[in-house]
Amino acid sequence: MKGLLQRVRQARVEVAGEIVGAIDQGLLVLVGIEPQDTEASADKLLKRLLDYRVFTDADGRMNDSLRQVQGGLLLVSQFTLAADTRKGLRPGFSTAAPPAQAELLFNYLVSQAQALHAPVATGRFGADMQVHLVNDGPVTIMLET
Fold first, then answer.
1. What is the pLDDT of residue 136?
2. Gly-cisPro motif, important for rejection of L-amino acids: where is this motif (predicted)?
3. Catalytic annotation, pick one of 80, 85, 93, 130
């Protein structure tokens, strides 16, 4: 499972002009799910997202986690993160989990996140989404389980 995290001052996801998820300070995470991923993969990614130290502390160093700053978590499913880009000029998506498997695991990740942290927001699985963000730093990091 892949999570492309971006530290944001604010972020929102729109579908057909409607805001379906939004946060203020926190993490926007684009989530890519591959066929070998399991609930254990989701649990591991979530723990890292909540505890990864990417927020600045009082000394201006990246030492604080999402939990410590009590920031928002915006999770957005993005199958293109699992693209095979090793050759050619067009990505291949055979390395992404099938939609039914990916949706189950994404929903599991969201439910676990909601049980452990607040606020948690999401995009809409499988929808054509427009993601708006103010990247803070910028800080953008790929986490993989």
1. 97
2. 137-138
3. 80
